[in-house]
C-alpha cells in the first residue's frame, strides 16, 4: 500500500508540474490552427521517416545494453533486450523514471538476469549518456553561443537586471525545470544506493557498473553509442521538414533545439511534457519562427513521438508475451 501511495504521489506531482508549464505556455493559444495543420499542413512522409530513427535509437540501445551484460556471464536474447527498452520508455510515460527499473525487471523475468546486476549496467549507461549530452552541448555552445545568450536573455535570466529576473515567469519555469533535474538525480541515487542495501546485493550492482571495463568489441560499443545519439538527433531534426514554417531551419538550429529539448526531457514529467515544449518553442522563436507556429510544431511533434513510444511499449509487451509462451510450449 505504501509503495502504491508513493508511486501515485510521484505521478500526481509529475502531471501537475508538466501540466502547469503546458498551461502557461499555451494559455492564450488558438488550438483550431493545430487541427488544421495536423490534417492539412503536415508532411506525413517526413514524419514517418523521422519516426524510423526513433525506433532505431531504441533498437541500438537494446543491442548496446546486451553488450554490457555479456561480461557478467548473462546472455539474454537480443529481441528481449530491445523489447525491454521499448517497454521501459513506455513505462516512463506512466511514472517518470520507472523505465530504468522496469527494463531490469523484464530481463529478470524472461531471461533470468539478476535484477541487481542489470541495474548496475543501467547506471553505467546513464553515465555514458550524461557524458554524450555534455559533449554535444559543449560543441553546440561553441558553434551557437549568441543564440544561447539570446535564449537566456529572453527567458529572464539576464543577470544585469535582477528585478526583471525575479518578475519574469519564464525564469520560474526554467527554475522549476532545474529543480526537477536535481530531483531526478536524487531519485537515481536512491535507486542505486537504497535498493542494494535492502536486498543485500551491492556487489552485484557494482559488478554491473564495472561491466563496461570488460565489454568485448569496444569499437562496436562505441559505434552503437554514436548511432543512438545520431538517431536521437535525426528523430527530432527531420520533423522540421514536416511543416512549411520550419522546413528552412538548418542543422545548427536543429542542434540547438535538440540540446535544449534533451535537457528538458530530463525533467521528471511524462516524456518531458511541458519543459520540452517551453524549451523548443522559445529556441525556435530565436530563429524567426512565430510563437503560434512554434507552439503548433511542439504540440504535434511531441504528441506523435509520445504516441510512438506508447505504441512500441505495447508491441514490446506483446512480443515478450508471445516469446515466453512459445518457449514454455517447447
Chain-wise SSE layout:
Layout: H1 2-25, H2 31-40, H3 44-69, H4 78-94, H5 99-111, H6 115-143, H7 145-154, H8 162-167, H9 169-199, H10 202-209, H11 218-237, H12 251-266, H13 275-286, H14 291-329
Overall 3D shape: globular
How many structural domains are formed by the residues? 1
Strand content: under 5%
| Straight-line N-to-C gap | 38 Å
List the defining traits of the structure above.
mainly alpha; single chain; 330 residues; 0% strand
Q: What can be said about this structure in brief?
A:
The chain has 330 residues and is an all-alpha fold.
How would you explain this protein's 3D organization?
It is a single chain. With 330 residues, the chain is mostly helical. It is built from 14 helices and no strands.
Amino acid at each position: 500500500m505504501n509503495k502504491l501511495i508513493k508511486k501515485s504521489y510521484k505521478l500526481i506531482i509529475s502531471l501537475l508540474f508538466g501540466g502547469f508549464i503546458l498551461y502557461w505556455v499555451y494559455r492564450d493559444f488558438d488550438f483550431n490552427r493545430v487541427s488544421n495543420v495536423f490534417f492539412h499542413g503536415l508532411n506525413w512522409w517526413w514524419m514517418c521517416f523521422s519516426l524510423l530513427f526513433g525506433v532505431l535509437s531504441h533498437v541500438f540501445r537494446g543491442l548496446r545494453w546486451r553488450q554490457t551484460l555479456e561480461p557478467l556471464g548473462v546472455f539474454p536474447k537480443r529481441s528481449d533486450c530491445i523489447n525491454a527498452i521499448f517497454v521501459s520508455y513506455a513505462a516512463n510515460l506512466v511514472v517518470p523514471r520507472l523505465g530504468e527499473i522496469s527494463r531490469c525487471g523484464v530481463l529478470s523475468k524472461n531471461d533470468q538476469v539478476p535484477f541487481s546486476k542489470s541495474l548496475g549496467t543501467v547506471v553505467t549507461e546513464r553515465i555514458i549518456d550524461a557524458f554524450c549530452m555534455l559533449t554535444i552541448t559543449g560543441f553546440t555552445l561553441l558553434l551557437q553561443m549568441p543564440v544561447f545568450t539570446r535564449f537566456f536573455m529572453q527567458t529572464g535570466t539576464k543577470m544585469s537586471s535582477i528585478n526583471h529576473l525575479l518578475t519574469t515567469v519564464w525564469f520560474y519555469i526554467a527554475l522549476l525545470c532545474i529543480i526537477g533535474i536535481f530531483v531526478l538525480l536524487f531519485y537515481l541515487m536512491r535507486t542505486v544506493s537504497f535498493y542494494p542495501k535492502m536486498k543485500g546485493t551491492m556487489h552485484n550492482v557494482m559488478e554491473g557498473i564495472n561491466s563496461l571495463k570488460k565489454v568485448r568489441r569496444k569499437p562496436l560499443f562505441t559505434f552503437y553509442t554514436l548511432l543512438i545519439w545520431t538517431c536521437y538527433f535525426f528523430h527530432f531534426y527531420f520533423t522540421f521538414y514536416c511543416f512549411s514554417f520550419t522546413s528552412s531551419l538548418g542543422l545548427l538550429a536543429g542542434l540547438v533545439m535538440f540540446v535544449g529539448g534533451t535537457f528538458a526531457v530530463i525533467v521528471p514529467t511524462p516524456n518531458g511534457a511541458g519543459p520540452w515544449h517551453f524549451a523548443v518553442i522559445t529556441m525556435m522563436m530565436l530563429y524567426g519562427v512565430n510563437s503560434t507556429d512554434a507552439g503548433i510544431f511542439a504540440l504535434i511533434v511531441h504528441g506523435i513521438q509520445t504516441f510512438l513510444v506508447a505504441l512500441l511499449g505495447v508491441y514490446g509487451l506483446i512480443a515478450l508475451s508471445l516469446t515466453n509462451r512459445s518457449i514454455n510450449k517447447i
